[in-house]
From TrEMBL:
InterPro entries: Redoxin, Thioredoxin-like_sf. One of its GO terms (molecular function) is oxidoreductase activity. Residues 4-37 form the Redoxin domain. It comes from the Bacteria. This is Redoxin.
Length: 37
């Protein structure tokens, strides 16, 4: 899924501040998602 556009999502960082995917636009970013089933 390299170079795919994803929806603008806001999630809390470790300090509880909201961080938007848009904040990283133009930067190389790795988004690692996992789940425990």
């Amino acid at each position: 899924m390299l170079r795919k556009t994803i929806p603008d999502v806001q999630l809390p960082d470790l300090n509880g501040n909201q961080v938007s995917i848009r904040d990283f636009r133009g930067k190389k970013t790795l988004i690692f998602m996992w789940a425990s089933w």
